[in-house]
C-alpha cells in the first residue's frame, strides 16, 4: 500500500543521576502499528554521559540499552514484554518511569518511508 503511514516516535535518553533530571539523548524509537514496525536506533558511543556523571559505568548502561533494544525487536527472551506486538512493546518502552533509561513522551507524524524517518529523527535528536 502506497501513501503516508501514521507513526509514533520517542527519544531514548540516559539519565545518569535521576535526581538531577539531566539527560543525554542516545537513541530513537519509531513505531507504526499498521506496518507492524518498531525499530530502535541507538548510538553506541556513550561518552557524553560522563559529562553528567564522571563515575557512570558505561558497560552497565550498554547492557541496559541492549536489553531495551531486544525488547524493541521482540528478541529479548528474558522479558515477557518482548512477546507482545509492536504497539504494545512501544507503549511499555515509552511508559513514564524514574530510572536511568528513559524516553521522551511519544510524538506522532505521517511518513511514506519509516526507515528514512528513523534516520532523520536519529540525526536530529542524537547526533
Please describe the topology of this protein:
Elements: E1 5-14, E2 24-32, E3 37-42, H1 49-52, H2 58-73, H3 86-93, E4 101-103, E5 107-111, H4 114-125
Antiparallel strand pairs: 1-2, 1-4, 1-5, 2-3
- Note the run of SSEs as H and E: EEEHHHEEH
Backbone CA Rg: 15 Å
Helix proportion: 25-40%
The low-confidence parts are: none
**In total, how many domains does the architecture comprise?**
1
Total helix count?
A: 4
Number of E strands:
5
In what range is the share of β-strand residues? 25-35%
Distance between the termini: 32 Å
Secondary structure class reads alpha+beta
> What does the largest sheet look like?
5 strands, antiparallel
Estimate the mean pLDDT confidence.
93
Oligomer: single chain
Shape: globular
Protein name: DUF3037 domain-containing protein
InterPro entries: DUF3037
Characterize this entry briefly.
The chain has helices spanning 49-52, 58-73, 86-93, 114-125, and strands spanning 5-14, 24-32, 37-42, 101-103, 107-111. It has 127 residues and is an alpha+beta fold. Strands 1, 2, 3, 4 and 5 form a five-stranded antiparallel β-sheet that branches.
Amino acid at each position: 500500500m502506497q501513501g503516508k503511514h501514521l507513526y509514533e516516535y520517542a527519544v531514548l535518553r540516559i539519565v545518569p543521576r535521576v535526581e538531577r533530571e539531566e539527560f543525554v539523548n542516545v537513541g530513537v524509537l519509531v513505531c507504526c502499528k499498521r506496518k507492524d514496525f518498531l525499530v530502535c536506533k541507538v548510538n553506541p558511543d556513550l561518552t557524553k554521559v560522563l559529562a553528567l556523571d564522571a563515575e557512570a559505568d558505561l558497560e552497565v548502561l550498554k547492557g541496559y540499552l541492549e536489553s531495551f533494544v531486544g525488547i524493541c525487536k521482540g528478541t529479548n527472551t528474558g522479558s515477557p514484554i518482548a512477546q507482545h506486538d509492536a504497539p504494545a512493546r512501544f507503549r511499555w518502552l515509552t511508559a513514564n518511569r524514574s530510572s536511568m533509561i528513559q524516553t521522551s513522551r511519544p510524538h506522532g507524524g505521517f511518513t511514506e518511508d519509516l526507515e528514512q524517518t528513523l534516520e532523520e529523527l536519529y540525526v536530529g535528536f542524537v547526533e
